[in-house]
Design brief:
The complex is a heterodimer of chains A (335) and B (231).
Chain A: H1 2-13, H2 17-29, E1 39-44, H3 58-67, E2 107-115, E3 118-126, H4 135-138, E4 145-147, E5 153-155, H5 165-169, E6 176-178, H6 184-187, E7 196-198, H7 204-208, H8 214-218, E8 224-228, H9 229-242, E9 246-248, E10 258-262, H10 266-276, H11 296-301, H12 304-325
Parallel strand pairs in A: 1-10
Antiparallel strand pairs in A: 1-8, 2-3, 4-5, 6-7, 9-10
Chain B: E1 2-4, H1 8-29, H2 52-80, H3 91-102, H4 116-143, H5 151-177, H6 190-193, E2 195-197, H7 198-204, H8 206-216, H9 218-222
Antiparallel strand pairs in B: 1-2
The chains are: A alpha+beta (335), B mainly alpha (231).
Chain lengths: 335, 231
């Protein structure tokens, strides 16, 4: 593993100027890397031009090429989710590159954002942020969505039933559903389940080989960089401080493995997404600042699980003590 | 004339358990994406049912109440030695005889305070609840931020939780279906008032009846005015 890690660092170091700057720091830490090192990425919006000269941004194109074999291949015709009269089928829109779909796990939002009195063009690469405490994983009813020690949140397509709960509990509604594939077809396809959920897996197979995700390697501007999480986090926080800039993904949803850097406030970017991007269908996420993890509230009451049994024991002791004290001789001892 | 069958504590345990399990079933099924799909959230008053956060919080609160009452009951039985509901040796065989008697194939055996079949049903229900509490606590730990429950453990906790949900559902259905049998119905009021008819106890729960009569004398069973008496 240490050998491939060195290769990875070497490769990553060549992947762009910004990455080099970051990873020179990483190199020093390389000696302490181990197999369960947690990784993260930085998306520097000040360096992303959305590949405006190309039809498909290179990060998106590389993701599509790399994941081609992982895309769903549903059998037609696909039935509705009874008793609903709809189902989610993106198989005839596989070419879409301007939103998240089961066939497109990252895309670039092209926005015009008002900043300091003028309109600024902003390009925002979007995909799963790989949360520290992902509710999509914790709340998966089938336990087939796993937060890996290296950082990625990975859906197992063989166990996924396609209920889309992960999408509902994600602050960005990232995972996208394709009907007509997966385990539900073997059980009761008309009445339960809806397909398989798909999203970015941080190129987990590449990470395990000591390589970086395809999108990071493909970026021509060094807007994407990848490395050990603590180094990425330190760099991102310092950058925001030194550049009077903004950081997104460090606090959102309780912390993630993706750090967006921007000189334009994310409140303005979020507002622009809502006005210019969102069309009421899934796969065009906003960027709500300070997004709250849905599991925070249940966690806040969880101490009740310690209090409840103790209270039960105390109440029983008290109740029996009182009965025994005032016990009447003719009471049925078994009643 | 009536005889006290269920003390206030037992009725309290029964109904708190029943209500918390009812809420747990509804909110637990709500952790799967079914209420929106099947339009349950279109029913007036149930609009919240497809909101995972609301149903999860309710599931937590109801689970705390179930844990409270389960621990209450465990210690209560231990301290009072009121063990009539716990299974005894030979209960399985006796249950088969009771079922045969329902079909007219055998004579119903003399019963204690509870039928052998009731004692077995209690064991199945109690074990299911215990398994659900243990696996439920693992699932709560898994949902806490910054806990590292291995996926294999939370996966199996989920499977066992789901399995015993089904077992508990069937045991409660059987519990309710028992009232289809006419001879069981006189027991129904006792879970509200605590009392059943003395004649019924004498006929159907003769072992219990005779023991109380022997212990406290016939007067304890016939004097209806004695405060707090068995009669």
């Amino acid at each position: 593993m240490s050998m491939s890690r060195r290769n990875f660092i070497k490769r990553a170091a060549y992947s762009g100027l910004a990455a080099t700057a970051v990873l020179s720091r990483v190199d020093k830490a390389a000696a302490s890397l181990n197999s369960t090192e947690e990784y993260a990425s930085i998306i520097d919006l000040s360096k992303c031009d959305g590949c405006s000269n190309l039809d498909t941004p290179l990060c998106v194109a590389s993701c599509r090429t790399k994941n081609q074999a992982n895309y769903p291949q549903p059998e037609q015709p696909i039935g509705d989710y009874w008793p609903q009269t709809k189902h989610e089928d993106w198989s005839d829109k596989q070419g879409l590159v301007n939103r998240l779909t089961p066939y497109n796990w990252t895309y670039v939002q092209h926005l015009e954002v008002e900043h300091e009195g003028r309109l600024v063009k902003v390009s925002v690469p979007r995909r799963c942020l790989h949360c520290d405490n992902p509710p999509c994983s914790s709340l998966c009813p089938f336990g087939v969505n796993e937060k890996m020690p290296e950082g990625p949140v990975v859906i197992n397509p063989n166990g996924c039933f396609g209920g889309a709960k992960c999408r509902d509990v994600c602050p960005w509604n990232i995972p996208q559903r394709q009907a007509g594939v997966g385990l539900y077809k073997e059980v009761a396809p008309k009445y339960a389940g809806g397909g398989v959920m798909y999203k970015c897996d941080m190129c987990y197979d590449l990470i395990q080989k000591g390589k970086e995700p395809a999108c990071v390697s493909a970026c021509p501007n060094g807007a994407l960089s990848f490395g050990p999480k603590k180094d990425m986090q330190t760099y991102a926080r310092n950058w925001a401080q030194e550049n009077d800039g903004y950081l997104y993904g460090d606090a959102e949803n309780g912390g993630t493995s993706t750090f967006y850097l921007s000189v334009i406030p994310f409140e303005a970017i979020h507002q622009a997404i809502l006005e210019q991007e969102v069309d009421g269908k899934p796969g065009k996420p906003g960027m709500p600042v300070g997004a709250v993890n849905v599991l925070d509230e249940p966690a806040g009451i969880a101490e009740g699980f310690v209090i409840a049994p103790v209270a039960g024991l105390l109440a029983a002791g008290l109740s029996v003590y009182r009965t025994m004290k005032g016990a009447e001789i003719n009471e049925d001892p078994e009643a | 004339m009536k005889i006290l069958r269920h003390k206030l504590e037992i009725r309290f345990v029964h109904w708190v358990t029943a209500l918390s399990i009812l809420v747990l079933f509804f909110t637990g099924f709500g952790q799967m994406p079914v209420y929106k799909r099947y339009f349950v959230d279109q029913i007036p008053g149930l609009e919240w049912s497809s909101n995972y956060l609301i149903t999860l919080n309710l599931h937590y609160y109801a689970a705390m109440i179930l844990m409270f009452i389960s621990f209450f009951y465990m210690l209560y039985i231990f301290l009072t030695k009121e063990t009539a509901i716990l299974p005894k040796k030979g209960d399985f065989k006796e249950t088969l005889i009771i079922f045969a008697s329902l079909l007219g194939l055998a004579k119903e055996p003399d019963n204690d305070k509870y039928l052998a079949e009731q004692r077995l049903a209690f064991a199945v229900t109690a074990l299911s609840i215990a398994a659900l509490i243990i696996t439920g606590v693992i699932k709560v730990l898994k949902n806490l931020p910054a806990t590292n429950i291995p996926l294999s453990l939370s996966f199996w906790a989920t499977q066992v939780h789901n399995f015993f949900t089904v077992i508990l559902l069937f045991s409660i259905l059987a519990h309710l279906l028992a009232f289809l049998i006419k001879d069981n119905r006189p027991l129904l009021p006792s879970m509200f008032t605590g009392h059943i008819s003395l004649d019924y106890a004498r006929r159907r729960h003769s072992l219990w009846f005779n023991r109380i009569e022997k212990q406290y004398g016939a007067s304890a069973l016939t004097d209806d005015n004695k405060k707090g008496s068995a009669a």
